[in-house]
Amino acid sequence: MTLHHVAFGDGVPVLALHGWTPDHRLMTGCLEPIFSQLTGYRRIYPDLPAMGQSPAGDIDSSDGIMAAVREFIDEQIGDEPFLLMGESYGGYLSRGLVAERPEQILGMGLICPTGTLWHKDRKVPEHVVLRTEPGVLESLTDGEDFTELAVVQTAAALAAYRADVAPGLAVADLAAMDRIQENWALSTAPESGPIYTRPTLVLCGRQDAVTGYEDWYELLPHYPRATFAVLDIAGHNLQIEQPELLGVLVRDWLQRVS
Question: What is the pTM of this model?
Answer without folding.
Answer: 0.97
